[in-house]
Amino acid sequence: MKAKILLLSLFFSLAFVNVACDAAYSITATKIRDILDHPRDYQSKEITVYGTVTNAVSLLVIKYYEIQDDTGSIKVVTDNLLPARGEKLSVTGRTTVVEVGTERWVVFRENPDSTIQAVDSKNAGGVAPPQY
Fold first, then answer.
1. How far apart are CA 49 and CA 80, in angstroms?
2. Which candidate, 68, 97, 92, 88, places its Cα nearest to that of 78?
3. What phi and psi values does residue 20 have, to the nearest 5 degrees?
4. Cα angle at 82 between 34 and 67, to 5 degrees?
5. Alpha-carbon distance 1 to 26, whole Å?
6. Which of 23, 75, 76, 92 has its CA 20 to 30 A from that of 83?
7. Cβ pair 108, 35 in contact under 8 A
8. Are 127 and 21 in contact (CB under 8 A)?
9. Which SS3 state, helix, strand or coil, does residue 97 take?
10. How confident is the model at residue 2 (pLDDT cuts 50, 70, 90)?
11. What does the alpha-carbon distance between residue 36 and residue 59 come to, in Å, rounded to a whole number?
């Protein structure tokens, strides 16, 4: 009986830690809509975004993936390995605005020396996230 109570307590504690970590990442990260609406405010500043990977592309000279939060999505240019679709990430870098004619693209450039922090439901309880 005591073992059941201990296991249930451990399970609910890990579930609570997982929800709390997910909430903390989403609160401290910059909202993607803010970056897209006001790119000058974030240009040349180091910022962190948090969201879910929706697409990953590797072209001949460039690798990028798209990360989406509750407010929008942005392309992240990287030199690291591409993350899997559906993976939740916290990424630090700087924004760049590329203008071609009347088109304006806001691109997030991941810091080359930073590591991506994967935030996963399987990573609760203080287990270090995988680093790329």
1. 17
2. 92
3. -65, -40
4. 20
5. 38
6. 23
7. yes
8. no
9. strand
10. confident
11. 24
Task: For domain 2-123, give its CATH number from 3.40.50.1820, 2.40.50.140, 3.10.450.70, 3.40.50.2300.
Answer: 2.40.50.140
**Mean pLDDT, the chain, whole residue set:** 78
Determine the average pLDDT of the residues in 89-97.
90
Give the residue with greater pLDDT, 71 vs 14. 71
Two tokens at 129?
């996230």
**Percentage, residues of the chain above pLDDT 70:** 67
In sequence order, what are the residues at sequence separation of 6 or more whose Cβ sits closer than 8 angstroms to the Cβ of residue 91? 48, 49, 50, 67, 76, 108, 110, 114, 116, 117
| pTM more than 0.85 | no
